[in-house]
Amino acid sequence: MLRWASVTRRQYTTxxxxxxxxxxxxxxxxxxxxxxxxxxxxxKGLQHSNQSNKKTSVAAILDQCTKRKVPIHYTDKGELNNxxxxxxxxxxVMKATPIATMGLRCLMPLADNTYQxxxxxxxxxxxxxxxxSNRLPLWIALDQVQDPQxxxxxxRTAHFFGVDGLVLCSKNSAPLSxxxxxxxxxxxxxxxxxxxxxxxxxxxxxHENGWQILGAAADGASLDSLxxxxxxxxxxxxxxxxxRTNVRRHCDTLISIEGSMEQQQRLGVVESxxxxxxxxxxxxxxxx
Length: 288
Known about the structure:
Strand 7 (114-119) and strand 8 (127-130) form a beta hairpin. 30% of the residues lie in helices and 25% in strands. The protein starts with 9 loop residues before the first strand and ends with a helix. By secondary structure, it is α/β, with parallel strands linked by helices. The chain is elongated. The protein folds into 2 domains: 17-96, CATH 3.30.1330.30; 100-286, SPOUT methyltransferase, trefoil knot domain (Alpha/beta knot, 3-Layer(aba) Sandwich), CATH 3.40.1280. Helix 1 runs parallel beside helix 2 (52-67) and helix 4 runs parallel beside helix 10. Belongs to the class IV-like SAM-binding methyltransferase superfamily. RNA methyltransferase TrmH family.
């Protein structure tokens, strides 16, 4: 995981203070320390839960907050429901500063199993990353994915498969909110997430630096035809409209997932996969 000590970050989240909720999200946020924890609110009696796993997890959160002198307040379920708009908070809500991202201009060439991230802010130094020992790097770029449920699912899957990086459009994308963190099962707190002001330019320059750009599209080709000699960026489009025209232009190849039914049989039933599901299938194939 990238350490941010020497990197200037730009917020790309909801404004103000986040009410982070759910055991996994809160525990991971405390572990990575990408946010500043301000206050922990715990449902009364939760520390005495009969569920051993939950009791152990809550105890660990309380221990971390105590060590860091984060104020702990016990309250009723109603207050926690209000803070989370009645979402499943598991009796834990932590007030924290928003998580922040680093803006990127492009990915630099891969050489000697290392490559650099070129920040969009000229005042920031490039960040060096090492390629995995058993494969070439794989990054995910999201072209205006706006549903927080989909974004959370994508982040969770990307983290599970060990995707090397995730890039979002800085405009017209779902913000990195507590909802996204909860849906990601806390993976949003663990994974390094980046933004770009112009996805087309990011892809173009990264391609010039030796990265293969793959676009996920219904009219794409089979994965079997792909070469495996370049680092890759896999691009997914908006849930409703797919990849924008200017983004498709910068893709070397469009790829798709073949279903078991003929196209004419699928029409009127299920024409395509959810973007989060499609991402999981494609990444599991590409990362092998």
